Amino acid sequence: MARRRRSETMEENRVKLIAAGRKAFASEGFSGSSMDELTASVGLTRGALYPSFGNKTGLLAAVVAQVDGEMAARAKAAGASAGDDWEQLLAEGTAYIAMALDSEVRRIVLLDGPAFLGDPSQWPSQNACLQGTKQAVTRLIAAGVMKDVDIEAAARLLSGAALNAALWVAASDDPHSALPKAVDAFRLMSEGFLARTS
Questions:
Q1: Residue 9: pLDDT over 50
Q2: Which of 5, 99, 116, 180 has the fewest CB atoms within 10 Å of its CB?
Q3: What pLDDT band is residue 198 in, cutting at 50, 70 and 90?
Q4: How confident is the model at residue 139 (pLDDT cuts 50, 70, 90)?
Q5: Which residues contact 45 (CB under 8 A, 6 or more apart)?
């Protein structure tokens, strides 16, 4: 019973710390966030951070995974309201790029994430997005909508294009001006995969 209670407490603390980290990283950035202030804001000590996350970077990784997972769900929802499978794929990519204008996404996932966690294409959350893109590409090739190209290569290029476009928009001096350029280029590049029937 004591072991179960301890694991429940650890999970409760983990949830609290992710929420506190998310708030702090969004407002202060990763470098500007104090772990003492962050943990105290949820009634915990700095020592509560280590069992679940190891360190501040581990907490950032957990927060990035949560926010990036939400981004994927939002992109999926945007795709669901588009027309056919091809338009859904493009709508998902476009929605993902547009999230670079969201201040929380911009700071946590697109600026601090790569700066402190390294290459986003290696993050588990990005690999989950890649799997969804592979499934969509598989369906589109089977339906003759896309050219008969290597599924893995096409999925990586499409996912990578959306991610890199979002990174560019987020880092731009004028994100609102960069966004339509990024979306237009993403859609134009993606159309190169379409099977032409003429």
A1: yes
A2: 5
A3: very low
A4: very high
A5: 39
Identify the residue whose tokens are 């969509």.
136
Q: How far apart are CA 73 and CA 107, in angstroms?
A: 19
Rounded Cα distance between 81 and 187, Å, is: 17
Please give the domain boundaries of the chain with CATH numbers for all domains: 1-54 (1.10.10), 64-192 (1.10.357.10)
